[in-house]
Amino acid sequence: MMSMAHGHGVYTNTHGAVYEGAWHHDMQYGKGTETWRDSLFEGNFVGGLRNGHGVWITDTKRYDGNWVNNMMDGYGVMQWTKG
Prior knowledge:
Elements: E1 7-12, E2 18-24, E3 27-35, E4 39-46, E5 49-58, E6 61-68, E7 71-80
């Protein structure tokens, strides 16, 4: 358990993606925000994966709904922007 992320924190990877939120045994767990160069996800994580309710936003679309193991699943609303 030493040197493992646990609690609230911020992590930036070598590609510039940033995660800010809860950690449990070195994995994203609970509420958090993950920001990439071209998208943002704000919602729940379990075992390092998007699980439960979350909002994913890109330049061309916005999805507000349920996630299971990083995949959109169940009820959700997808909106596309005019481009």
